[in-house]
Amino acid sequence: MSARTVLQEADIARALTRIAHEILESNRGAEGLVLLGIPTRGVTLAERLGSVVSEIAGKPIPVGSLDITLYRDDLSQHPTRSPKRTEIPAGGIDGRTVVLVDDVLFSGRSIRAALDAIQSIGRPAVVRLAILVDRGHRELPIRPDFVGKNIPSASAERVNVRLRELDGTEEVTIES
């Protein structure tokens, strides 16, 4: 199995900074903004993104996590998935702009599950999607609002996001 590195630590940091600026511009500031990361790496990326957005905006941005395990349509194929924690920031999501954050967008099924999970928690004014890597191959009509990098890949290839906090290294690779 051969792997090639497509993003390194500096590339990931630059992508998150750009996404933070785009989120603030799209939202016309930080008012009413909530970031929700999808476990596992989406939570880490949401925390990082929240720090960058807070630094730019000059005020703290609420960051939480949204477990989608029980909303997935592939539980029968992967019954060993264990639920992660859902943590909704104080103040909830009702009437707020929620930005879902995940590492890789592929088929769109995880995001569909996240939309169902959000619906069971509250009613945001708007839901946006921030993705570090968009690799294409959508099975559902889902499009990200904020993308770190578009990386075309073959369906059989695997895109791996490794983050320092979880993996001890920082990179995005594609395995054939």
End-to-end separation in angstroms reads 6 Å
Element-by-element helix/strand order:
EHEHEEHEEEHE
CATH class: Alpha Beta
Arrangement of strands in the largest sheet? 3-2-4-5-6
Strand count: 8
Could you give a short account of the major beta sheet? 5 strands, parallel
Q: What value does the Rg take, in angstroms?
A: 16 Å
Q: What helical percentage do the residues reach? A: 25-40%
Low-confidence stretches: none
User: Count of DSSP helices?
Assistant: 4
| The CATH topology | Rossmann fold
Principal-axis shape equals globular
Whole-number tally of structural domains: 1
CATH architecture: 3-Layer(aba) Sandwich
The average pLDDT value, as a whole number, equals 94
What is the subunit arrangement here?
A: single chain
Structural classification: alpha/beta
> What amount of the residues lies in strands?
25-35%
Note the topology:
Blueprint: E1 3-8, H1 9-27, E2 33-37, H2 41-57, E3 63-65, E4 97-105, H3 109-121, E5 126-134, E6 146-150, E7 158-162, H4 164-167, E8 171-175
Parallel strand pairs: 2-3, 2-4, 4-5, 5-6
Antiparallel strand pairs: 1-8, 7-8
Structure, explained:
There is one protein chain. With 176 residues, this protein is an alpha/beta fold. The chain has a single domain (3-175), classed as Rossmann fold, CATH 3.40.50. 30% of the residues lie in helices and 27% in strands. The chain is built from four helices and eight strands. It has helices at 9-27, 41-57, 109-121, 164-167; strands at 3-8, 33-37, 63-65, 97-105, 126-134, 146-150, 158-162, 171-175. It has a five-stranded parallel beta sheet with strand order 3-2-4-5-6, with helices on both faces. Strands 1-8-7 form a three-stranded antiparallel beta sheet. Strand 2 (33-37), helix 2 (41-57) and strand 3 (63-65) form a beta-alpha-beta unit. Helix 1 packs across helix 2. The longest helix has 19 residues, at 9-27. It is globular and about 45 Å long.
